[in-house]
Amino acid sequence: MLILQRMYCLVSHKSLRSLFIPNSRNNKVLNFKEIISMRTDSMPLLYHSLTTILDVLEKPENKNTDGVKELLDIYEKVKDENSKYKAAGEVKTHPLIVLEGLDGSGKTTVGNRFAKKIGAKKWKTPPESISHIRHLFDDNNNLRTAYYSLGNYIAALEVEMLLKNCPVVMDRFWHSTAAYAIAQSIQDKGDMYVLPAKGDKIYCWPEDLFKPDIVLLLNVSEEVRLQRQSRRTNVTTQEELLNSCSEFRKQVIEAYQNMYNPGVILINGDLSFGAVLGQLQKETSSLLKK
To answer: What range defines the domain where residue 79 resides?
Structure first.
């Protein structure tokens, strides 16, 4: 049972049965790198490296899916731009500040005001460069997480080129992709998966992804969140689930709080707008003085 619980959202029901049926010849305990490379319905539900994302998107059965070729082309273009930037000897001199939280927590509004206040550039994931094809992936259960995951790497390449001139405030990054993917896997196959325990390597930041200097999690009550989200016109399937399923919300929030290297710093988003800005300034003051 302990082994099964540690496989929670990274292998398929079929894979679990073949690996762990008593007396099976293939019952070794896998290490973390082996686990994250495995597939659920032929797709990993969470990606811890760029290579695993590209491997999936470039599979014959996926590469002709609407949006995939354009997504990969945009990644290659941004990667080339970033390579030229690094070849010129440019280096980061300002911090990357990430704001995380549930849909409707106020990240965008607070982030815009905070960025203006500290003279930072505002960015987001998925970045604008791929936002126009987001609708092609949001309801695609197989490739949704691959799209958001590659979006993190594209945004990282873009942001890295901005940090020479000013700080960047990012609306979501890898922590959101991971928290939602983990919670979704439990929602989809709750009979097989449980929320990984705090300290599990699944919560650790990918080694090959540009790391933020600080991650701030806006934590709001459900009443406040729903009030804010009611102003939106476009709601994804996953956002609808967030509104209708308290257990899903709980799992997303707990997954956020379990993240490490870097972890998240909780910000009380129920306070007044000015008070929330004050908390953000307090938590980032040492970074902005450098």
So the answer is: 2-288
Quick one: which of 27, 31, 29, 9 has its CA closest to 17?
27
With contact defined as beta carbons under 8 Å apart, do 167 and 97 qualify?
Answer: yes
In this prediction, what percent of the chain has a pLDDT beyond 70?
Answer: 82
**What would the two tokens of residue 164 be?**
């020479």
- Give the C-alpha distances (Å, rounded to integers) separating 132 from 46, 67, 87, 137, 278: 23, 10, 30, 11, 34
Residue 271 has which token pair? 């306070």
Other beta carbons within 10 angstroms of residue 179's beta carbon come to 25
To which residue do tokens 């129920």 refer? 270
Q: How many residues does the chain have?
A: 290
CATH number for 275: 3.40.50.300
Per cent of the chain over pLDDT 90 is: 60
pTM given for the model: 0.82
